[in-house]
């Protein structure tokens, strides 16, 4: 049996600081005969190993309407979630969350596409955290960043994904970034030496989260940003623009409370980033990694071009994902979530993530 | 808040924000700021229950109206728009009058009602709210209020090169409440009743 796929476009290698993306097809017959489930074991293994997976849900996608594709995605997610529980220590209280199909993709004024900056889905309640035993600040008690304004639900999204139901005017691109690789390099950039142990890297993350949480009343961001996660002390780097799109503006209250933002959006270190959001990203990456945003993308980014009927899945806590897409692209977001990100089962899963992730980052 | 405007226009723009903020049922305005960097800003808080669909919709409606009101005031004083012009206002007029910072703030709030709402729907809602605001703020009583508030703020600004904080006087708030401004600009096209209908299994 062939698990591979033809035609999926990717960039970046399987080694180094990239997230490894595995393209797979779910055989048509599986939807009628669930015995043929080698793809599911491969998916679970790859997600458990820190990678992302792109699953093609239909051999002849023209014969499937969106409703059928979403039904298939739900069926696939249930099996993947069960295998992750059995094989990868995913807590049993996790469940599959299937959202509504989107209506399109808002763009910034004057733009016919948008670059969605790296983020974690449901980031107000979903972001990487240290284990409770290495948490000096009480972050692990709630693993919550903000709660006043959020899109839909408070669930802690451990794996995120989406089904492409309509690619739009041009094929959308999804990008993945490894939290472990970038955190490791940010530690090195700040300290001039590699972290000597996993505990040191976890403590570094805890310090960075606490810095942003303790200043939340000033920067007013609802999500923990990539630059904040990687240790920037500049509050301009703790803010996401509307969207959060590269081309977009920041909120008035953020300009008013973080005054350096007003001047920082006028230019960025590389001089080529489009829009206020991109320019602050460039400034943040330069601060925490010594790389401009385009250079950081070159080093860490893994790209997938998704087609209609593709289900993209990845670790939502230890990967960031970004996207470039047309305004008429439609997707159906799907996640594997927990309502209680804590306790022994969650800590066991988290320990596995940290141990394996640290080893990969060290080797990378 | 708008990046590319002079001080006289800034005063009118911010007066529009603060007058509408004081008129909205579900918004609690705080102080306004004329910052040393040159921008203006009015702090607002929602007094709506974000966890309930009805409360969330009212909060979003209030925030969106306040976000667009600066551009409306500017369009009346700088662009000479009147209430009669409301039906012909289009999305380009809205974005130009409001500026990208305020327009994208309204877009962000309106997007909160649906996951990844389509661009045209959000634009339609923004235009509809802008037109309603224009009908209200272009009334003679509101124009008088906009003029007096903006002139007071300009005078305050001329006394300092640092931050200037201000808010409406009790007398001005009384005038806002009697000026015939709507207490809410209800959402129509971006409002969905199944907002939190997420399938879990």
Question: Can you describe this structure?
Answer:
The complex is a heterodimer of chains A (364) and B (201). Chain A has helices at residues 38-48, 66-88, 179-191, 198-214, 216-219, 226-229, 252-257, 260-264, 275-289, 293-300, 344-363; strands at residues 9-11, 21-25, 52-56, 95-98, 114-119, 156-166, 173-178, 302-305, 310-315, 319-325, 330-338. In chain A, helix 1 (38-48) links the parallel strand 2 and strand 3. With 364 residues, chain A is of the alpha+beta class. Chain A has eleven helices and eleven strands. In chain A, the strands form two sheets. Chain A has a six-stranded mixed β-sheet, covered by helices on one side. Chain B is mainly alpha-helical. Chain B has six helices and four strands, in the order αββααααβαβ. Chain B has a three-stranded antiparallel β-sheet with strand order 2-1-3, covered by helices on one side. The longest helix of chain B is centred in the N-terminal third of the chain and has 25 residues, at 53-77. The model of chain B is unreliable at 193-197 (pLDDT under 50). The interface between A and B is large, with 40 and 36 residues. Strand 4 (95-98) of chain A pairs antiparallel with strand 4 of chain B, so a sheet runs across the interface.
Largest sheet of chain B: 3 strands, antiparallel
Low-pLDDT runs of chain A? 6-15
Fraction of residues in β-strands of chain A: 15-25%
What is the string of SSEs of chain B from the N terminus onward?
HEEHHHHEHE
Annotation field: number of helices of chain A = 11
Q: Outline of chain B, from the CA principal axes?
A: globular
Number of strands of chain B: 4
Compute the average pLDDT of chain B. Answer: 89
* Number of H/I helices of chain B: 6
Determine the strand fraction of chain B and express it as a percent band.
5-15%
Strand numbers in spatial order across the main sheet of chain A: 2-3-9-6-11-4
């Amino acid at each position: 049996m062939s698990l591979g796929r033809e035609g999926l476009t990717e960039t970046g290698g399987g080694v180094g600081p990239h997230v490894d993306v595995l393209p797979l097809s779910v055989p048509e017959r599986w939807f009628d005969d669930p015995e043929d489930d080698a793809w599911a074991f491969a998916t679970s293994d790859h997600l458990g190993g820190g990678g992302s997976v792109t699953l093609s849900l239909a051999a002849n996608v023209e014969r499937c309407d969106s409703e059928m594709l979403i039904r298939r995605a739900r069926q696939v997610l249930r099996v993947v979630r069960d295998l992750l529980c059995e094989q990868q220590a995913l807590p049993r209280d996790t469940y599959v969350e299937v959202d509504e199909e989107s209506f399109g993709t808002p763009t910034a004024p004057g733009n016919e596409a948008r670059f969605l900056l790296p983020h974690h889905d449901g980031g107000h309640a979903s972001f990487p955290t240290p284990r409770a035993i290495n948490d000096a600040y009480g972050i692990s008690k709630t693993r919550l960043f903000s709660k006043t304004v959020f899109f839909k639900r408070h669930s802690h999204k451990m794996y995120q994904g989406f089904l492409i139901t309509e690619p739009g005017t041009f094929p959308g691109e999804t990008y993945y970034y490894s939290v472990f690789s970038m955190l490791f390099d940010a530690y090195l950039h700040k300290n001039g030496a590699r972290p000597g142990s996993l505990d040191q890297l976890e403590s570094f993350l805890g310090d960075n989260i606490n810095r942003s949480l303790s200043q939340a009343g000033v920067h007013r961001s609802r999500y923990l940003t990539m630059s904040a996660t990687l240790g920037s002390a500049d509050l301009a780097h703790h803010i996401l623009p509307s969207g959060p799109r590269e081309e977009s503006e920041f909120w008035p209250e953020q300009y008013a409370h973080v005054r350096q933002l007003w001047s920082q959006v006028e230019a960025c270190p590389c001089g080529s980033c489009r829009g206020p959001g991109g320019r602050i990203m460039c400034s943040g990456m330069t601060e925490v990694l010594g790389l401009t945003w385009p250079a950081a993308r070159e080093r860490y980014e893994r790209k997938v071009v998704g087609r209609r009927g593709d289900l993209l899945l990845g670790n939502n806590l230890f990967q960031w994902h970004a996207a470039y897409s047309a305004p008429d692209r439609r997707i159906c977001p799907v996640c594997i979530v927990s309502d209680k990100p804590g306790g022994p089962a969650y800590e066991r899963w988290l320990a596995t993530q940290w141990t394996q992730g640290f080893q990969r980052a060290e080797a990378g | 808040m708008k990046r590319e405007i002079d001080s006289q226009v800034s005063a009118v723009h911010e007066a529009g924000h603060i007058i509408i903020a004081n008129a909205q049922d579900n918004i609690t305005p705080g102080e306004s700021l004329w910052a040393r960097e040159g921008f203006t800003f009015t702090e607002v808080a929602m007094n709506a229950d974000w966890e309930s669909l009805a409360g969330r919709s009212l909060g979003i409606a209030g925030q969106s109206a306040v976000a667009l009101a600066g551009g409306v005031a500017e369009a009346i004083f700088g662009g000479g728009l009147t209430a009669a012009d409301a039906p012909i206002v289009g999305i380009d007029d809205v974005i130009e009058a409001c500026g990208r910072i305020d327009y994208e703030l309204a877009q962000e709030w309106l997007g909160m009602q649906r996951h990844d709402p389509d661009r045209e729907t959000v634009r339609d809602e923004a235009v509809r709210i802008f037109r309603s605001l224009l009908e209200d703020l272009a009334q003679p009583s509101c124009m008088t209020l906009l003029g007096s508030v903006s002139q007071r703020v300009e005078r305050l600004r001329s006394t300092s090169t640092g931050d200037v904080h201000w808010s409406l006087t009790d007398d001005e708030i009384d005038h806002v409440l009697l000026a015939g401004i709507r207490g809410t600009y209800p959402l129509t096209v971006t409002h969905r009743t199944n907002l939190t209908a997420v399938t879990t299994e």
